[in-house]
Fold each of these.
Amino acid sequence: MPATVIVGAQWGDEGKGKIVDLLAQESDLVCRYQGGPNAGHTIVVEGETYKIRAIPSGIVAGVASAIGAGCVVDPAVLIQELDDLEARGHRTDGLVFVSGNAHLIMPWHVALDGARERRLGKLQIGTTRRGIGPAYADKATRIGIRVQDLLDPKILREKVELAAGEKNVWLERVYGIDPFDVEEVVTQTLAHAERLAPYVADTSLLVDRALRDDRRVLFEGAQGTLLDLDHGTYPFVTSSSPIAAGAAVSFGIGPQRIDEVVGVSKAYVTRVGEGPFPSEIDGPAQDRVREIGGEFGTVTGRERRCGWLDLVALRFAVRVNGITSLALTKLDVLSEFDEIPLCVRYRLPDGSETEDFPAHQSDFHHCAPVFETLPGWREKLEGPALPAAAADYVAFVSEALTVPVTIVGTGAARDAVLALQP
Ligand code: IMP
């Protein structure tokens, strides 16, 4: 299909990087549409591990990669990533494109993110402290600095001076933090500008042309549906739109040009940061899932909270994204369990039960999971076919969601996947 969106169907960390890597090998252009270095995609190729935060993971497969207007770019992180890729033998020039309309994460955004979380104390969101929220806030209040500002030293200086002037007052007076030396930030940003200038592009035109030429374009979301600023579990969300429609917004194309939406879900659930999590596992089984699944954050190293698969939340993800098929990753992690519960409904505070994700936060915060338990398979998933109980598990998910499961992840390596017939 010419235009496919890969979207996280849970709270992020679904293993999108691996699915993108897989589908990127058949794509002409891979496009990252939101977020910034809060994301961390891990791809394992021939025993080599790549942890990518800014550039679409298609770059590892040598596919042209674009960062859209809906992203926020930390120039230092992007440069480091470009340098690392080049040092490992990957070409980046003529292959990496960054929208001039994307916003820059400046050093004060990172400082403010950390300071705000510290001030919130117990009420903190549990952000990745990479400056994401403050950068998007500046974009919305229209004092952000954009990637295209890097192309004009005079404008860049003016914008940095203006933004720093305001942010320094805020940092000092509200949070008691040392202000930034404006001249130092200007010098540093001008140096970044020199390195990044060749990569700045009109990514809307790039995608439009690619689609007109019948090229295969893959849009890669970061984070996940439940972290969406509008539709996720606010306020425990990120500051952008990971849902599939975000791809059209970020790349400036009409929504009707998207042909397929592949939802990526783990065979269980993880969440980092704070916030309600109905299917979170009680007791030692949670630690076992974390250990077996290696559930520690790529960006922050934090322990991920683990839960059994939540079909109510997944049904919601199918709805808000228009998911046309599902990739179920890390099914092998469940091979170690005799029985596998799945959350099929929520019991609401008034005693009623629902299969639909609650629209009101209080219902979600206070709902209890209703589980159905399926037998485990206790066998390695070596293919070509799944063990019967594993196939039943996948079929149960597919039927509950009325969406075909077309890919199953069976291990960390790049080729540890099974394609299933829809
Ligand atoms: P922020 O995006 O750093 O502002 O963090 C906001 C929320 O999104 C926090 O709960 C983070 O843990 C979560 N979050 C951000 N990026 C990711 C990710 O890539 N995977 C999982 N959670 C994430």
Amino acid sequence: MIRTRVLLVDRDEPEPGPIAEAAAVLRRGGLVAFATETVYGLGAVATDADAVRGIFEAKGRPSTNPLIVHAADVDHARTFAARWDDRTDLLARRFWPGPLTLVVPRAAAIPDVVAAGGPTVGLRVPGPTVARRLIEGVGLPLAAPSANRSNHVSPTRAEHVLADLDGRVHLILDSGPATVGLESTVLDLTADPPRVLRPGPISPGVLANVLGMGVDHGPVAADSGHLASPGLLAVHYAPRTRAVRIPSPAHLADFDRPARFGLMAFEPIPDALRLKPVAASIEPDPAVAARDFYRALRDLDSRGLDLIIAVEPPEGPEWDALRDRLRRATTPHA
Ligand code: TXA
Ligand code: MG
């Protein structure tokens, strides 16, 4: 059993002390959780296969699910790609640092275990200064999945990491809540046209605009020959409490509700429904809803409820990433 330490550090002007300590832990092959703009990541040196195996063990993650490699800047990232074409360069320079992961052919420096044995690697440069200083401090890229136990709710705060991984991670760098709150958009640039494997903060429309070409998105047909993102298995990110989703507030009317239920919605709920949830999270602004989604889900999950009822967000691309995560965390109400 590892004794997990937590160090406070400033997100924008990180103090050299905690960065140096965390870098030393990583260089010795240890695990350090750190904040990105999306969620907290569970980091290990990406070029150290043994250290990366420690990530899979700590999370209880299947070895078939590849990890994202985090680099300090565009020039650093491109050294881990076996091919760096114009599309990749355009997107990297436009969106990095930022919540976009680019799947490209993998360079030999990235071990098999990171890529789950595949020919590609997902690369990204994280937004917060603290994350980039950490990578610079180590001098090596960091493989980092979300810092939750596999299939549990992603962490947007240090306390979420501690709740899931206490005794399994050497150090947590606590730089406060993640500002975006949903995982990066994953774009496969080895497909032609490029394909969004996981919807996220940067929408397919925005990517298509910058590229000046269409971008595939939506479910990958099982027989298409495309390798879907393994993280896109239908149920993922799930709370422990039974959680169902309904398409709109109107469906609450004749819903057989247990005494102790929690409610999550993204538009006001009509008073006439006379709902009496034990706890509710209702946030109509898409950016705020995204930022607070995993925290709200963890909060509802901690209350010993019989049921969580989630009302799906309204139509519109600004809700797509949240809708995707909500669907993975819930089952449809029959
Ligand atoms: O925002 C994020 O992306 C966060 C922060 C920490 O960077 N990371 C994250 O990692 O969400 P993880 O492991 O929880 O999700 C990564 C997703 C998974 O669905 C994985 O299957 C997919 O990206 N992925 C990673 N490498 C890939 C590759 N080479 N090809 C296809 N999918 C890949
Ligand atoms: Mg994850």
Amino acid sequence: MRTVSVNGLRIAYATAGAGSPAVCLVHGTGGSTNVWAHQLDGLADVARTVAVDLPGHGGSDGTIPKRIEDAAAIVAAFLDAIGISRVVIGGHSMGGAIAQQFALAYPDRVEGLVLVGTGARLRVLPRLLDLLASDSERGVDLLMSLAIGAEAPAELRTALHRATADNPPGVVLGDLQACDVFDVMSRIATVNVPTLAICGAEDRLTPPKYSRFFGERIAGARVVVVPGAGHYVQVEKPRETTAAIREFVAGLGRRAPRE
Ligand code: COA
């Protein structure tokens, strides 16, 4: 892991590959760069890929802002700090919300958008928010029971559960509160860059309907629904997810510029 100072905060990130395009991957609720391990490896020969630990997550200091807009601004400052101006921005779940916001706020910096298990609106079950506030252990149990697909092997289930439960108090709740007020459904059609949306067919937190919405609203967006995967599609079905992102990234150089 490397670290860089962003607005006075130590931000941790993982990197693989070199050259262009640059791909930046942003994790979701209670996550870290670890959720992109397979993609970092699998994209190394086609892109310079960086995966960032958001403030208060993984190896990064600070706390995540309450608003997705502010989190997107931190990602922009992080990319400035490591010398990346234009990027394929991607994210999972809450990270996908940050990626959408990044594309809306900094269109000139975006070469492509990769949306993994996410949606243009991310309302959260009130029961889940209540439980996380009153009994975070049971809240994480409920969250992970909804998040991980039925086909995921037991060791993967245990590892994802532990990684989420190990967050400092309040982090998971804070992330989901930021998701709960995120809503760009009426603005997402203004995104005018090549877009790939991927989700698990069995995703109960951000169901395939949410990814298909991207396909309907963003001109030319490609939607991939991966059978047998839940919300952690890039971890549960890493080969399929990485292959879809590889194909998308490799195709960017071949596309004619959009009007
Ligand atoms: N993309 C496309 N459609 C969306 C959407 C998205 N990102 N988000 C909501 N919608 C649709 C819903 O399907 C619904 O359509 P319908 O009226 O045809 O059924 C409508 O917009 C309103 O839905 P929503 O904004 O979610 O409000 P709600 O009061 O119907 O439901 C919840 C609230 C929390 C029950 C619901 O959002 C849910 O089950 N969420 C998934 C579970 C969760 O907590 N996910 C965490 C996300 S990080």
Amino acid sequence: MKTQIAICGYGTVGQGVRRVLTENRKEIEERCGFSPEIAYILDLRDFRGDPFEDRLVRDFTEIENDPDVAVVVETMGGLHPAFEFTARALRAGKSVVTSNKAVVAEYGRELLSIAEESGVLYLFEASCGGGIPIIRPLRTSLCTERIDSISGILNGTTNYILTRMAEEMVPYEQALAEAQAKGYAEKDPTADVEGYDACRKIAILGSIAFGTYIDYRTVPTEGITKITVEDIWDAVRKGEKYRLIAEAKQTPEGISVSVAPRRVSESSPFYSVNGVFNAILVHGNMVGDVFFAGQGAGMDATGSAVSSDVLEALAYANRNEIRSEKKC
Ligand code: HSE
């Protein structure tokens, strides 16, 4: 049975994956009959005193050439070399799981087709909505639905900022600094506050929900930087809140996709989604509304979503043995 994995990128999310897989090892083993073994951690930085310090490597080739590594976890962020490492891992017959929405939105189609050619998986549950299970439910539980719309709060940093500004009168810069300190924001938080991160996420979710490729570059996108303190107070006075809403919906003219700040009132399901929480509302023609909510960013929540993909990818790598041993 192949249980070895490699984590590429040992920042917030990479460390979250390590935490989930080690803290919950017993539960994972009981449920699945096996548990992932972290064989390598690729990062250029030093992590003195880290319990997995002895697994640190700096050369991706070591991972690529090790036939025992069945799954590569790409939590590096950024497009390059994350894309190249992903493609090389897939071509080397390893499944890749990722939280990297930039790579999924830009190269997802290409990487999925390389994965298919290589007979492995490319999974990206953690790329949208942090710890919220949404991609797997769209792929499986909701696969018989005709989806009419999918909308949501898809960025934890901006939701945290908007909540802190409205509820605690915290200035924008301070709220952003807090979101950065908590590990919610991107390395360059422009992607969060200008809506680019939410834009990539809705392009990914829309593509899955509607079974057609949505190019994130075509999505009209506005972030939260034009919202003034006066705007926020005006909303508060009227019992409303600003929320950054990403939406993809079927219209008679085709699929319409957008990201923009909206004022929501108490009757909106997004009204009580506060802080780092994200939420996604899916409307299917048979099931009606389905609402998903949870922490949209952060080490443990995102690590949890990545880890679920690791288990799916390992189960796939060992499917013949698992079938004969009736595990999972
Ligand atoms: N910067 C992202 C956010 C991280 O704040 O939602 C999770 O994708």
